[in-house]
Structure formats: C-alpha cells, structure tokens
Amino acid sequence: MYTGYSNFASSVDTAFLFILGVSVIFLVGITGVIIYFIIKYNKKRHPVAEEIEGSNKLEIIWTVIPTILVLIMFWVGWKAYIPERRIPKDALQVKVTAQMWSWRFEYDNGKVTDTLIVPQGKNVVLLLKSMDVIHAVYIPAFRIKEDVVPGREKSMWFKSDVPGTYDLFCAEYCGLRHSYMLSAVKVLPQDQFNAWFAATPPKMDSAAASVPGAAGKLLVQSKACIACHTFDGSKLVGPSFKGIFGHKVTVETDGKEREIVVNEEYIKRSILDPTADVVKGFQKGQMVSYKGQLTDDEIAKIIEFIKTLGDEKD
Ligand code: CUA
C-alpha cells in the first residue's frame, strides 16, 4: 500500500485527492447541467420565456451539501496539518541556513553540508534561519513546505522510512538565482547514516593543505561564495575571483566612480562591508556582510586563495 515517502505524505495526499475529487464531480456536474439547459431552453424548442418561482427544497439541498463538503475538506486538511506543527522533542536537529542563493545544513557535531542527510525512520527537526530574505524549504516528495523568514525562528519536521534521494527546493522567489537553490534530501539507513555522521568532517589531508590557497578554496565553497562568484572568469551575480588580485577595477563608492587596485585590504572590506565599494556593472546590495561569520584568519585564507587565481590575466 502506498504510504508516501514521509509520515505526512498520505494524509496530505488524502486531503488533496478529496478536494480534487469533489472539484471534478462539481466540474462535470455543473458543465452537464449547463449543456442540458442550453438544449432544453433553446429558443427553437422553448420560444416563450417563463418565470420560474424559487424552490425551497432545492435551495436547502444546494446549501447543505456544499457546507458539509467544505467542512469535510477543512477536517481532512486540519488532520494533515496539525501533526506537522507538533514538533517532536526526540529528534535529530539540523540547523538550516538559507542565504541568497544556497542552503547550508549544520549538525550538532559541527558537520556542515549542502545536502540534507538524514537517517531512515527517525524524526528530523529542521531549525530554519535566513541570512537575508524570505526563502522556503520545499520537499515535494515529503509533502512539506515552510517559509524561512529573516529574524524569525521557525522549524519543521518529518520522518521518512524510504531510503533514497529527494529534491529540496527553495519555494519563495528570492532573487536572481532563486532557481539555483536546488538541493536534495538523502535518506540513509541508520548504519550508513551513523557512519557518515561519525566520519570526520572533510578537512584537508596534509598533502592538500600544502597547496597554496587550498584552505581558502574550501572556505569559499563551504560558505557558499561560489553561488555568486566563479573561479573561471565567468560573470554571475558578483565578479569572478579569477585574475582580480593586483589588478585595477572601477568601483562605485558613495555614488562616485573610482579606480582602485584589488589588494588584501579591498577584499577584506568587500567581505565585511560589501556595499562600500561595488564593482562597476554589478548591482549593489546583492551580498550580505560576512561579519561574524568569518574570522580574520579565515579571511586571510580566502585572500590567499584568490591570489592563486590571479596569475593568468585574461
Ligand atoms: Cu531562496 Cu528562492
């Protein structure tokens, strides 16, 4: 028997199918009556119009039946909705941070991913936080959706018994690259989840760490800078990191254009106060400050990484 991919799927589907079914019955019924009347009261067949008095019996029928139907609709919807709002206490908690334009999932052991990974058959609570504008977590297969609102603490939960990979979308238009907020939920059997959860976070091995800029590259990826900045010179929401270090750029500062050289100081200012100097051709206000999100040491590592992209000029 189909029970869906989450604990909410069958009750949401029941509500949906009931409302859809009632709508279809009325669509067919009303269309049928319209066609019947068109034929019956056609001018050729029925040349003289006549006044029809009201019918109490009919009026009671078409008031009582729809009232009962909408109350049933309310009841099945309510029954599907209320369990979604009863957040369980014994659950795996995952902090979800939405930001233009990426998702970040953080576990209580410090693990951070861009894909939501959860154990099969366990309650999972998502603690929702937005860094900038309103986003929305939408997992169609689980039949759940919840807005992520800046300045508000919100949560949602689910339990899935079917291992697999399911789409996770942003369902609230949040700007230019809204469609890029496409991620996934991976439901793993408990032992596989435990193995993943216990594995050390993907820190660099010592060989990789000796490559210049490697630590900065990991930061740029994990902090989702790459949602807007590329390494290869192509232009997204923000300027590419390629070939900028040590080169001149035209920026707008307090409404005036000026030329500056991209150096350590400029990159640091761009990270902490992104609206101070906006590179010409890019829109102001697309980036939020990373103050408090990156330490000075981490910013230095990112600058090291950007330097490694700055050698070839093209
Ligand atoms: Cu985030 Cu749309």
Features:
314 residues, alpha+beta, Helix Hairpins, Immunoglobulin-like, Cytochrome Bc1 Complex, Chain D, domain 2, 3 domains, 5-stranded mixed sheet, 23% strand, elongated, binds dinuclear copper ion
Structure notes:
By secondary structure, the chain is an alpha+beta fold. The protein has 3 domains: 9-85, Helix Hairpins, CATH 1.10.287.90; 92-198, Sandwich (Immunoglobulin-like); 206-307, Cytochrome c-like domain (Cytochrome Bc1 Complex, Chain D, domain 2, Orthogonal Bundle), CATH 1.10.760. Helix content is 34%, strand content 23%. It has helices at 9-40, 56-85, 190-198, 206-209, 214-222, 264-272, 296-308; strands at residues 92-99, 102-107, 112-113, 116-119, 124-130, 135-139, 144-148, 154-158, 164-170, 182-188, 248-253, 256-261, 277-279. Helix 1 (9-40) runs antiparallel to helix 2 (56-85) and helix 5 packs across helix 7. The longest helix is centred in the first third of the chain and has 32 residues, at 9-40. The radius of gyration is 28 Å and the shape is elongated. The termini are far apart. Dinuclear copper ion is lined by residues 98, 101, 135, 170, 172-174, 178, 181.
